[in-house]
């Protein structure tokens, strides 16, 4: 049976740690290359969260904990990424990306590229992230049992 009766601090620390790890994986250029392998960073993060924050050896408990905190952090990171892209695009328009008042001709194309980037992130978030967090959480519980 899955036991999710952890202190609030454990949940909040897990979300904060996952958010920080995802921020490094997504925004640091060299480290972001790890993101080329679908779900690999989620497996690493999920396993690390369970090993560091939980003392469980039950695979289901570790998997569900990593899934919940990892997905909460992943949604938050994607919201931050989307806001940063919108702010960047609005700054391009304000800086006069084209002639005359209003946004220039390049801004519409940039908005399309930004929207495509957000959509591909959403597909990865829905398809690959949950599998990675479940596998990583289970691996973390297995490591707790065999360490």
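^ Assign residues to that structure.
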């Amino acid at each position: 049976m899955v036991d999710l009766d952890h202190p609030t601090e454990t949940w909040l620390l897990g979300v904060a740690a996952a958010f920080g790890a995802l921020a490094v994986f997504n925004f640091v250029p060299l480290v972001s290359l790890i993101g080329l392998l679908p779900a690999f960073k989620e497996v690493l993060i999920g396993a690390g969260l369970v090993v560091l924050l939980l003392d469980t050896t039950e695979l289901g408990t570790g998997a569900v904990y990593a899934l919940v905190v990892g997905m909460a952090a992943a949604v938050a990171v994607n919201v931050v990424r989307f806001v940063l892209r919108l702010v960047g695009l609005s700054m391009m328009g304000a800086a006069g990306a084209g002639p005359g008042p209003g946004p220039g001709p390049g801004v519409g194309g940039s908005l399309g590229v930004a929207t495509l980037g957000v959509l591909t992130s959403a597909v990865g978030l829905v398809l690959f992230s949950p599998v990675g967090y479940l596998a990583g959480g289970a691996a973390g519980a297995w490591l707790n049992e065999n360490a």
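The radius of gyration is 19 Å.
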